[in-house]
């Protein structure tokens, strides 16, 4: 029995390590590819479209060709009312988040991402999925003050990059809330593969509009280097990130996920200063980020306490979701494949996890 527990614990830590490495790696890789100082591919929309095209293609192969995963029953009405709006905000969050890499450092972007709980809470209150509460509001104020202090201490502060990143955060927050509202309303359940199958192509189409206006006229084929293996490995890492989060949430609880998210942010900030020496961190940066993190930790504690206040079930949250997914697949005649979760390049997340694991796992954004 002890050996079984140790084996499970080891596997859990391995999955957490894989998630942290992939999540950090995708962000650093994107920064390296986009930065004019390094690979010099300053086309964030094009890079995001490559990710979406690759993810959609792999999902198509797994569902339609190799039939590894069973498709869900998707009606035109559900696609138009659920998938399309979610895809629009998902595409926007990726576009804004990746564009920010051209103007500000990875370290500062991670500090700004501490605003994610604030944005999510505000969008949830506006959309009616959460109630305005004094305790949560005070945490949001603390987070906001921390981010302002951190921004004030940023040596290479750039207004354009900051605006893009904040817009990406709010687009992602609205996507999360819409996902909860729309999927809960329609009772739609998607796993990581089927979510990519439906969301990625639609996001690709949305991204093609700003690409045609903003990037196509400025593309000079003679000056832009295109290395197949660079873009293939970059897109592959983004795809692998989806599945790593699937493994993490399936094996860990809310507390572990949030701690892993905070740990990943600190590791990413430290790594970015090593890989990109031009990224300078000041004492005021760290002080502001620490203040913001205190607010984030307190917010996480409140949300976890809220979840624990819900009448307990005999199954754990991952077990319940897995059970629901198995039952749904059985009724559809398919085999169970797992549950639906995501992070920076992950289009959908189940509404039952949206207030538990996503705030720290989904920072974006940018991937």
Automatic annotation (TrEMBL):
<feature type="region of interest" description="Disordered">
    <location>
        <begin position="321"/>
        <end position="341"/>
    </location>
</feature>
<protein>
    <recommendedName>
        <fullName>Sugar phosphate transporter domain-containing protein</fullName>
    </recommendedName>
</protein>
<feature type="domain" description="Sugar phosphate transporter">
    <location>
        <begin position="14"/>
        <end position="300"/>
    </location>
</feature>
<dbReference type="InterPro" id="IPR050186">
    <property type="entry name" value="TPT_transporter"/>
</dbReference>
<dbReference type="InterPro" id="IPR004853">
    <property type="entry name" value="Sugar_P_trans_dom"/>
</dbReference>
<feature type="transmembrane region" description="Helical">
    <location>
        <begin position="159"/>
        <end position="183"/>
    </location>
</feature>
<keyword id="KW-0812">Transmembrane</keyword>
<keyword id="KW-1133">Transmembrane helix</keyword>
<feature type="transmembrane region" description="Helical">
    <location>
        <begin position="282"/>
        <end position="302"/>
    </location>
</feature>
<feature type="transmembrane region" description="Helical">
    <location>
        <begin position="226"/>
        <end position="248"/>
    </location>
</feature>
<feature type="transmembrane region" description="Helical">
    <location>
        <begin position="102"/>
        <end position="124"/>
    </location>
</feature>
<feature type="transmembrane region" description="Helical">
    <location>
        <begin position="12"/>
        <end position="29"/>
    </location>
</feature>
<keyword id="KW-0472">Membrane</keyword>
<feature type="transmembrane region" description="Helical">
    <location>
        <begin position="41"/>
        <end position="66"/>
    </location>
</feature>
<keyword id="KW-0813">Transport</keyword>
<feature type="transmembrane region" description="Helical">
    <location>
        <begin position="195"/>
        <end position="214"/>
    </location>
</feature>
<feature type="transmembrane region" description="Helical">
    <location>
        <begin position="78"/>
        <end position="96"/>
    </location>
</feature>
<feature type="transmembrane region" description="Helical">
    <location>
        <begin position="255"/>
        <end position="276"/>
    </location>
</feature>
<dbReference type="Pfam" id="PF03151">
    <property type="entry name" value="TPT"/>
</dbReference>
<keyword id="KW-0762">Sugar transport</keyword>
<feature type="compositionally biased region" description="Basic and acidic residues">
    <location>
        <begin position="321"/>
        <end position="330"/>
    </location>
</feature>
<feature type="transmembrane region" description="Helical">
    <location>
        <begin position="136"/>
        <end position="153"/>
    </location>
</feature>
<dbReference type="GO" id="GO:0016020">
    <property type="term" value="C:membrane"/>
</dbReference>
